[in-house]
Description:
Mean pLDDT: 80
Structural class: mainly alpha
Strand content: under 5%
Distance between the termini: 41 Å
Number of strands: 0
Largest sheet: none
Low-confidence stretches: 14-18
Shape: elongated
Amino acid sequence: MKALVIAYSLLFCSVAFAHSCPNEMKAIDAKLGAGPGLSMADMDKVKSLRAQGEKMHKEGKHDESMKALGDAKKLLGL
């Protein structure tokens, strides 16, 4: 029974985590739209990481997606 509870908990957490990718992308897009004042090199890096995060999300690789999106947010100061 304990193993079943743990399995359901892990499933719920992974599903909840998967749904936060779009929220992270929205936050990045909002900051990019506001003109974050980054250098062109940093702006290109943020856009690349954001695109990589979206691609990974669509492929179901949510851990990798969140890492890329987190790196983009760090560059943006979020």
